[in-house]
Specification:
single chain, mainly alpha
Length: 191
């Protein structure tokens, strides 16, 4: 099911993105054609790493604010499964890779391009895709913590969706993929 969603989102989203602006796929095209030494790929990867760490810092500030002002609670989850695997050092990498692909291709590539094609409003495309990401993204995004009450977690996912959606329109898909990869990879690697 997830593979079908990813394949369909890529097929339709890639076509729509090329209609609205092929520069959004320039970094991914360089990667697919094994031209990772191009300036487009390098700048997308560098911006992605930088914005991934900015997203981590922003998330830490949002968590602190929400826990302090809204009396929210947080609890650690999921590290028991990391210890039980044969190669535990691969868990952050594989989790970050699957989360980046499953979050950014449907929500940033497909929904942003589709909504923009229909409305010609980038802001609306970012807000709607972020709202959809907040409601349905918790199924495949994996945080090593749980926020209570639930609306705090939904708000965090919505803000992340807005951030990654704005990155998509400012830069390109590869920047957003790398930023998401860094964000979830570091979250998985923190004990």
């Amino acid at each position: 099911l997830w593979g079908t969603l990813l394949f369909t989102s890529w097929s339709v989203g890639e076509s729509l993105a090329r209609e609205t602006g092929a520069q959004k796929l320039a970094g991914v095209d360089a990667l697919f054609h094994f031209r990772a030494s191009t300036l487009t790929f390098a700048s997308s990867a560098l911006y992605g790493y930088a914005y991934g760490f900015i997203a981590l810092g922003g998330t830490a500030l949002l968590l602190r604010f929400r826990l302090y002002y809204f009396n929210g609670t947080t609890s650690i989850s999921g590290y028991v499964s990391t210890i039980a695997v044969y190669l535990p050092f691969l868990v952050p990498f594989l989790t970050a890779l699957t989360t980046a692909l499953m979050a950014e291709i449907p929500y940033r590539l497909f929904f942003n391009a589709f909504i923009y094609q229909k409305t010609h409003l980038r802001t609306l495309a970012v807000v709607v895709s972020a709202a959809l990401f907040a409601v349905t993204g918790s199924v495949f995004t994996y945080y090593p913590f749980v926020l209570n009450p639930l609306y705090l977690e939904l708000l965090l996912l919505f803000v992340l969706g807005l951030f990654f959606g704005a990155l998509f329109w400012k830069y390109d898909l590869l920047t957003v993929l790398v930023a998401n990869f860094v964000f979830f990879g570091v979250l998985q690697a923190i004990p």
